[in-house]
Design brief:
By secondary structure, this protein is an alpha/beta fold. The chain has a single domain, classed as Purple Acid Phosphatase, chain A, domain 2 (4-Layer Sandwich), CATH 3.60.21. The protein contains seven helices and ten strands. A hairpin with a 2-residue loop joins strand 8 and strand 9. The structure holds fe (ii) ion (2 copies). The site of one fe (ii) ion has 7 residues, from loops.
Amino acid sequence: MKLWAISDLHLASGINRAALAALPHYGEDWLIVAGDVAERSDHVRLAFQLLTERFAQVIWTPGNHDLWTVNDDPEFGGLAGPAKYRALVDLARTYNVLTPDDEWPVWVGKGGPCTIAPLFTLYDYSFRPEDIDRRAVVAWAKEGRAACADEMYLNPAPYSSREAWCHSLCAEAEARLEALDPLLPTVLVNHYPLRRDLVRMRRIPRFSPWCGTALTADWPARFRALAVIYGHLHIRRTDDWDGVRYEEVSLGYPKHWDRGAGVRAYLRQILPAG
Ligand SMILES: [Fe+2]
Ligand SMILES: [Fe+2]
């Protein structure tokens, strides 16, 4: 029994959909899916269906792309961020996929016991240089050839801004983390890196404001993380810092992965630690 993780399946791509469908069965193993499954609900449904057929338990947290308002979606078309999130949680529950809003499971397989905590925190533009005003971020990023389509498609209503939504989500997640059994370590799962120093994008460094929030920096240490699972950057890597394993587990767009290897090669084993 193993715990695996992947993120950023980006199933708007037919290449990614075909590759996901080619995954074999993993018996009793569990899978973490750390966001950016797809913009359209039929593609998210496909992922939940395919993955719950292949893994004994699937744990999901949303990425920014999942929350976009897309109009060519017969089921969830037109839903704004928070409402789309709730619709995705309801969809996940029909497949018995665990979400941030469910009771967080305890992994009792090898490498456990530990609580697996799927988090949803979003970002608040705090990963920007101190001398750049919040209102200047988009222009500053553009000067460095960075832009985020969330500015057009990720609607935070009824929140006044994405940062207001982020701050509400962080308060909620932090309260739940504080209420966990203090004797158990954790595996923290989030679409976004929990620490700013994990955001290292040499090609587009000015994309950082869309990559997380300073509010979560001390969560790995405070909440006893064995491992922190994240995606969003589309730059796979492993860092071992102060006894915590940080795993960026994204698949990404077809240009980010080797089709010959298949999705299987991009599943990261989290527990037992390799
Ligand atoms: Fe992504
Ligand atoms: Fe993302």
